[in-house]
Amino acid sequence: MIKSDTHAFVNQVLVCLLVTIGFGGSIGLGTVWMRHQISITANSKRLLSAELAALKRLTEETNALVEVEQRPEVLRQRNADWRLGMAPVSEGQVAHVTEDLVRRLRARANRDLYDRGANDSAAAMNIRLSFAQ
User: Fold this and answer.
1) 24-77 per-position pLDDT tens digit
2) φ and ψ at 5, to 5 degrees?
3) Which residue in 6, 53, 75, 89 has the most C-beta neighbors within 10 A?
């Protein structure tokens, strides 16, 4: 039975129109939600950047105060004011190090390992490495 009635065609067009509007609305809603998430992320980034800048500024101020307090004339004045009885450093007490400090400290820390191993015959180990390719 073939219908020549136009009501069936109008119903199909109406359903397609409603589906299209619903799909377009969901795309629009997704776009608005995504823009909202982007703005939330941007605001949190801005707040974190401001907090980081404040911490850097506080660190620089603290470093500046420490440098001011470590000047020799300030130290002498504090020594006199507080009657600490500290003597100024003489040049003979200062050891200028010209070599790499990391290497020097590593050698000093490991010196005990090597000295202890040489004195203790039970702790001696033989290690052989072969680099054959």
Assistant:
1) 999 999 999 999 999 999 999 999 999 999 999 999 999 999 999 999 899 999
2) -75, 140
3) 75
